[in-house]
Design goal:
Keywords: Hydrolase, Lipid degradation, Lipid metabolism. This is Patatin family protein. Helix content is about 45%, strand content about 15%. The protein is of the alpha/beta class. Strands 1, 2, 3, 4, 5, 6, 7 and 8 form an 8-stranded mixed beta sheet that branches. α1 (about 15-25) packs across α12 (about 255-285) and α3 runs antiparallel to α12 (about 255-285). The longest helix has about 30 residues, at about 255-285.
Length: about 290
């Protein structure tokens, strides 16, 4: 039975996920595959390349660097987070992404993007960690209004969280019948309608299906949470989530706040590590369904 790792997004709430993943790596918890959305994609790739500490390291190092993120970037380029700095300078030079380790790890790694022309999710398997894979990760994390549409082949893509925020059903559909799910909101969270919807309607007037996907995202998200709760109760999923709201802005510039959320993820994972390890081993020993 294949066991998967499902990584929700959430901008800098993703530092919680980074903390959890580092603990999993430190305890050699290995899954058959992983799928990340938005921050879950750009931070989760370090799990496949087995680079413990990389996510917290480069985020705290460069969060105040104007080349990394800022409204100046948004005005000049259309991207709040600099495409050149975040997806080339950092992974290629300043804090290299280990493409060799990524490529040689047999674990599958998928990212989710949203096709702006259809409003539907696109699931892409990243095989090598090369420049094209990095571009798919960038597309997954390209938030509406804060990033330009990313064009890859015939696709026009934005934030995967719009179409499929927590892609557990997709993973089940391709054979991952048991999943470790890392959420970035606490138990009981209920997503509300997007307050920026009027701006999104104006900005993406040429893409009505995308606008509608944004408009009803909260309904699909809350329904998915209900489904995950059922999976959790039946033993088909093990869910790791923060105990309380993380209360961190999407573009946090304070390294201490980034580390606070990261350490929260570490603490939650460390408390549950024996249960997590037992769940993964149990899944590996279970017969095919």
């Amino acid at each position: 039975m294949k066991t998967g790792l499902v990584l929700e997004g959430g901008a800098m709430r993703g530092m919680f996920t980074a903390g959890v993943l580092d603990v999993l790596m430190e305890h050699t918890i290995q899954l058959d595959g992983a799928i990340g959305v938005s921050a879950g994609a750009v931070f989760g790739c370090n799990y496949k390349s087995h680079q413990i500490g990389r996510t917290i390291r480069y985020n705290t190092e460069y969060c105040n660097d104007k080349r990394y993120a800022g409204f100046g970037n948004l005005l000049r380029t259309g991207n709040l987070y600099s495409e050149q700095f975040c997806y080339h300078t950092v992974p290629e030079k300043l804090d290299p992404f280990d493409t060799k380790a990524f490529r040689e790890n047999p674990m599958d790694f998928f990212v989710v993007c949203t096709d702006v022309r259809t409003g539907e999710p696109i699931y892409h398997k990243c095989r090598t960690g090369d420049a094209e894979d990095i571009r798919w990760m960038q597309a997954s994390a390209s938030m509406p209004l804060a990033a330009k549409i990313v064009k890859i082949g015939h696709y026009q893509l934005l934030d995967g969280g719009v179409a499929d925020s927590i892609p557990v059903r997709f993973f089940e559909s391709i054979g991952y019948k048991r999943n470790l799910i890392i959420l970035t909101q606490p138990k009981g969270f209920v997503k509300q309608k997007n307050k920026m919807l009027p701006l999104i309607r104006a900005r993406y007037v040429r893409y009505p299906p995308f606008v509608e996907a944004v408009a009803d995202r909260h309904q699909r998200y809350n329904e998915t949470l209900a489904y995950i709760s059922m999976l959790e109760q039946s033993g088909r999923a093990f869910v790791i989530r923060p105990p309380i709201p993380l209360e961190i802005p999407s573009m946090e510039r304070d390294p201490a706040q980034l580390r606070r959320v990261y350490e929260t993820g570490r603490a939650v994972a460390q408390i549950q590590i024996d249960k997590i390890a037992a769940y993964v081993e149990e899944c590996k020993a279970a017969p095919e369904e």
